[in-house]
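Re: your question from the hallway

Yes, I did run it. Sequences:
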Amino acid sequence: MKSFTYEKADSPAAAASAAVRTSNAKFIAGGTNLLDLMKLEIETPSHLIDVNGLAFDKIEPTPDGGLRVGALVRNTTLAADARIRRDYGLLSRALLAGASGQLRNKATTAGNLLQRTRCPYFYDTNQPCNKRAPGSGCAAIGGVTRQHAVIGSSDTCIATHPSDMAIAMRVLDATVQTVRPDGTTRDIPIADLHRLPGDTPQIETTLAPGELITSVTLPKPVGGTHIYRKVRDRASYAFALVSVGAIVQRDGTGRVAVGGIAHKPWRVEAAEAELPRGAKAVSTRLLDGAKPTQDNAFKLALVERTLAAVLAEAKG
Amino acid sequence: MRKPSAFEMSRRNLLVGTATSVAMGAASRGAEAQNSAAPPLTTATATAPAMATVSFNVNGEVRALKLDTRTTLLDALREHLHLTGTKKGCDHGQCGACTVMVGGQRINSCLTLAVMHEGDNVTTIEGLGTPDHMHPMQAAFVEHDGFQCGYCTPGQICSAVAVLDEIKAGIPSHVTGDLNVAPELTNAELRERMSGNICRCGAYSNIAEAITEVAGRPA
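Structure:
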């Protein structure tokens, strides 16, 4: 691990401004992904700003009937909150499908959204990777690609976003609140937070340098049956090959987003309109333009079948 | 000839990695001594690592340390406080051998920096019990042969103690049927909740029996 200096931030604005004042600085909260990457020298910050002391650890009601989840609320706390379990069951389920008990006790809401891909070529510093070393090439393309993206990828990167929680947040139409280094704040719809790789796979979100997530807001509950179905190589403690997060209403309408197949949570509103007509109709629209590899073409069928299982479960 | 299995390869890498990290721990202590006059939070360079002070409570005792900022809680416990009960397995949060409790919650001590734990209460396997006064979970692991080589055992036991607290607190898991009903301590719940602790010897059945006994229910 490269050496770094360390400070504890005492206010959100101070944290954001320290991040641009100090060269090559990073925020650290749970640290479960960042420290892993720092040990491998994939992340090499020269300064860490510890934001754990900031007052972003509460889940509070909003005036319009939703919930504001502090950026530092731990994954375990969020999954176990009685309001989340009752009204946003999809979010509890997605969180509990991810990582291990130890990691969920540490990992934060904002950190979960910002975690990096688990592409093995990103992790292997002996391999070219446009995300880790821009312009060096992509060893995944033409490599072993069973875990990789089947849609929204580019000829510079075929990595996926690994978060389960982000799939639920996308289905729930969450918004992300941030503070920027100049002290101004803004709301970012979750759909606009993560980027597709394009020619710049190293730029994964629309956050500006030094911009700090302060909370994630859930709109008021929409009812319906909440289901998160994750298909993976082990029954527990593994990343998704494919995951489906859905809210299905009694009349068969609903919302659906898919994980494990793209560089961001994959949701296509036009495909959701097909929900009453079943899984095949939805997945055809959802996966329109997919470019799987020989290794991961199975994901196209797996999306349809997992969605079919979800819709069957929703019918009861 | 039989090809080496993935397990054998990772076992070898594990041993190499452990030896290297011990050597690095010694090197960083040497560097610390050389730079003892330097103020905390000096600029990081290749020759002078950034240092910081931290004080936390370990097993009921306040411990103050001056550390290279890179020191994980795991390395602080093992290399600086010489509490070697907590084990370094993968050092990347994948195996659970380093599990300790901070503020009563189980975490991977390899994936957190020691300097981030100012004022925290840390409980390691040494704090749960001693050979003469074992914690009920330690006694149950002995009773049920919940280990073979024993390397993952401190992490398994810390995790198991915390799992029972998590179920008591009503925290659901991936296999909990109804999110709005208090979870029960079933074998499926235990196995899901313990999935962050890998046992290469495969003592899982006996581990589950030990935990079930402590929880007061038949296996």
